[in-house]
From TrEMBL:
Organism: Paenirhodobacter populi
Domain Starch synthase catalytic: start-end pairs: 3-234
Domain Glycosyl transferase family: 287-443
Full protein name: Glycogen synthase
Function per UniProt: Synthesizes alpha-1,4-glucan chains using ADP-glucose.
The enzyme's E.C. designation: 2.4.1.21
Enzyme class at the top of the EC tree: transferase
Origin organism lineage: Bacteria, Pseudomonadati, Pseudomonadota, Alphaproteobacteria, Rhodobacterales
Pfam families to which the protein is assigned, alphabetical: Glyco_transf_5 (PF08323), Glycos_transf_1 (PF00534)
Molecular function terms, GO-annotated: alpha-1,4-glucan glucosyltransferase (ADP-glucose donor) activity; alpha-1,4-glucan glucosyltransferase (UDP-glucose donor) activity
GO-annotated cellular components: cytosol
Entries under InterPro entries matching the protein: Glyco_trans_1 (IPR001296), GS/SS (IPR011835), Starch_synth_cat_dom (IPR013534)
Reaction equation(s) it catalyzes: [(1->4)-alpha-D-glucosyl](n) + ADP-alpha-D-glucose = [(1->4)-alpha-D-glucosyl](n+1) + ADP + H(+)
C-alpha cells in the first residue's frame, strides 16, 4: 500500500467550518481502493485527541513556536489521524481560526507550525511510516510544500486550492516567527506585494497544483477570479489540474437518511412527505402548489445572498416559497430576516447551522438556490441532485461543471438536470426563478428532470481515481 500524508486545518468528523473539511475527511476512504493509504494531519483543537483515541506521542518538540508540542496518532472511523497537540496554539474555546472578537492574532504562527511539523514528519517519518507523497490543502498548509522545497527533501508535493479568496497573507515582520528563510522573500518564493502569502508559497513550491473543479482551474488564470494570484496560476499552468470534489454517498443518501422519510429515484413518494414536513418546520403555507426553494449556505456576498434578497419578491408573487438555513455576515442575515418578515407563510429563515435540518431541507425542497459569484466546486448542488432537489446555479466553477442547464438543446436531448444562469446578477437570478416556476408547473417534465439528477454519479469514485493517478505520476517522476 502506497503512502500519502494529507495536511489541513480541518477534517470531518473532527472539525468543520466548510467544504474543505468534507473533502479532507472523505479522501482517505475513497483512496484505499486505489491502493493509497492516507494519513490526515490536523491541529489538536479541543476534543480532537479524545475523538481519535490518541495513544502515546509519535513525535515531539520542546521549543516549538513558543511552547511544547507533540504529535499523537489515532483513528476516526477508518482514517488514521496525526493530531498536532500544541496547547499554546490550538487549545482555545473559539473556532479553528478565531472567536467572537475576530481572527486570532497569531494565525500566522499557528499554521506555520502545522506546516513545519508536517514537513519534519514527511522528511523523517514516524514509527516506520513515511509518506511517498505529501498533499497540502489551502493557505493553512501552504508552507508545507515550501518548507520541503527549501530543505531539498525530494518528496513530491500536491497543493490543492479550495478557495483562492483565502491567501494566508501576513506582514513581513512575521518571517522570523514563522521560521521562513529570508532569502525566499522574493517573487519566486512567498513574497506577495510586500507581504507574506502562505498560499503563494505553496503554489510556487508544489510539484502539482489541483483545484476542486476543472472550470475553477481555468477561471483562476483570469483576473476576475484569481484575486491577484492569476499571474502565479498562469506561470504554473503546466502543473495545474482541476479535480471535482465528490459526495459521501453513505452520509448523503435519500434512501437511508435518518432525518427524513426515505425515498429513491424509483420510489419518490417519500419526497412529497418530506416537502409537507419542511413546510411545517418553517411555518410556510401548507397548501403551497408552487415550488419550494431552499438556501443552505454561508450568508455572504460570495454566495450571492444579496441577489436572493432582490430576486425573491417576483418568485413569491409567482407562487413560490423559500426556506433559508445559514449564518454569515450581519447584513446578509438581516436581509433574510427582512424577507421572512415581509412574506410570512412564504419565506422562512433559520439563522445558524444545523446538519440534521440541512438534510431535511434537501429531502423536502423542490429546488436549491446556489447563485454564487464564484464557487470553486460546491457540494450543495451535488446534494441537491442526489436528493431530487433541482439546483438553480450560476455558471461559475464547479456549479457549471456539475449541473446541465435546462435549454432547448438539453431538453430535446433529455439531459437537463437543473437551471444555470449568467450573468451573475439579480436579473439573471430573477429570470432563472421565472424558469423554475414554469418548469415546476410541467409535472411530467419536472419529475423527469428530478430523476435524471438523482441518477447522476457524483460519488468520490472517479475523483479518487484521478488523485491516485496524480500521486502515481509524481512518484514515477
Amino acid at each position: 500500500m502506497k503512502r500519502v500524508l494529507s495536511v489541513a486545518s480541518e477534517a470531518v468528523p473532527l472539525v468543520k467550518t466548510g467544504g474543505l473539511a468534507d473533502v479532507v475527511g472523505a479522501l482517505p476512504g475513497a483512496l484505499l481502493p486505489q491502493g493509497w493509504h492516507m494519513r490526515v494531519m490536523i491541529p489538536a483543537y479541543p476534543g480532537v485527541l479524545d475523538r481519535i483515541g490518541a495513544g502515546d506521542p509519535v513525535w515531539g518538540a520542546d521549543n516549538f513556536f513558543g511552547g511544547t508540542a507533540r504529535v499523537c496518532l489515532g483513528q476516526v472511523g477508518e482514517t488514521s489521524v496525526l493530531a498536532l497537540d500544541a496547547p499554546h496554539l490550538y487549545d482555545r474555546p473559539g473556532g479553528p481560526y478565531g472567536d467572537s472578537r475576530g481572527e486570532y492574532w497569531d494565525n500566522a504562527e499557528r499554521f506555520a507550525a502545522l506546516s513545519w511539523a508536517a514537513a519534519v514528519i514527511a522528511r523523517e517519518g514516524v514509527e516506520g511510516w513515511k509518506p511517498e507523497v505529501v498533499h497540502a490543502h489551502d493557505w493553512q498548509a501552504g508552507l508545507l510544500p515550501a518548507f520541503l522545497r527549501y530543505w531539498n527533501s525530494g518528496i513530491p508535493t500536491v497543493m490543492t486550492i479550495h478557495n483562492i479568496a483565502f491567501q494566508g497573507r501576513f506582514g513581513p515582520m512575521k518571517m522570523g516567527p514563522m521560521r521562513l528563510p529570508p532569502e525566499w522573500f522574493q517573487r519566486e518564493g512567498y513574497e506577495f506585494w510586500g507581504d507574506i502569502s502562505t498560499l503563494k508559497a505553496g503554489l510556487m513550491a508544489a510539484d502539482a497544483i489541483t483545484t476542486v473543479s476543472p472550470r475553477y482551474a481555468e477561471e483562476l488564470m483570469r483576473g476576475e477570479f484569481g484575486l491577484g494570484l492569476e499571474g502565479v496560476m498562469q506561470l504554473r499552468s503546466g502543473v495545474v489540474e482541476g479535480i471535482l470534489n465528490g459526495v459521501d454517498t453513505a452520509v448523503w443518501d435519500p434512501a437511508g437518511d435518518r432525518g427524513a422519510y426515505p425515498y429513491s429515484v424509483s420510489r419518490l413518494a417519500g419526497k412529497a412527505r418530506n416537502r409537507k414536513a419542511l413546510l411545517a418546520e418553517f411555518g410556510l403555507d401548507p397548501d403551497l402548489t408552487g415550488p419550494l426553494a431552499v438556501v443552505v449556505s454561508r450568508l455572504t456576498a460570495q454566495k450571492g445572498i444579496d441577489l436572493v434578497h432582490q430576486a425573491i419578491p417576483d418568485f413569491v408573487a409567482g407562487g413560490g416559497a423559500l426556506a433559508v438555513l445559514g449564518t454569515g455576515d450581519a447584513w446578509a442575515e438581516d436581509q433574510m430576516r427582512e424577507l421572512a418578515w415581509r412574506y410570512p407563510g412564504r419565506v422562512g429563515v433559520r439563522i445558524g447551522y444545523d446538519e440534521a435540518l440541512s438534510h431535511q431541507m434537501f429531502a423536502g425542497g423542490d429546488a436549491v438556490l446556489v447563485p454564487s459569484r464564484f464557487e470553486p466546486c460546491g457540494l450543495t448542488q451535488m446534494y441537491g441532485l442526489r436528493y431530487g432537489c433541482v439546483p438553480v446555479v450560476s455558471a461559475v466553477g464547479g456549479l457549471a461543471d456539475t449541473v446541465i442547464g435546462a435549454t432547448p438543446a438539453s431538453e430535446a436531448a433529455g439531459a437537463a438536470t437543473g437551471i444555470v444562469f449568467h450573468p451573475v446578477d439579480a436579473l439573471g437570478l430573477r429570470q432563472a426563478l421565472h424558469k423554475l416556476l414554469a418548469l415546476h408547473a410541467d409535472r411530467a417534465g419536472w419529475q423527469a428532470m428530478v430523476r435524471r439528477g438523482m441518477k447522476a454519479d457524483w460519488s468520490w469514485n472517479r475523483s479518487a481515481a484521478r488523485y491516485a493517478a496524480l500521486y502515481d505520476r509524481l512518484i514515477g517522476a
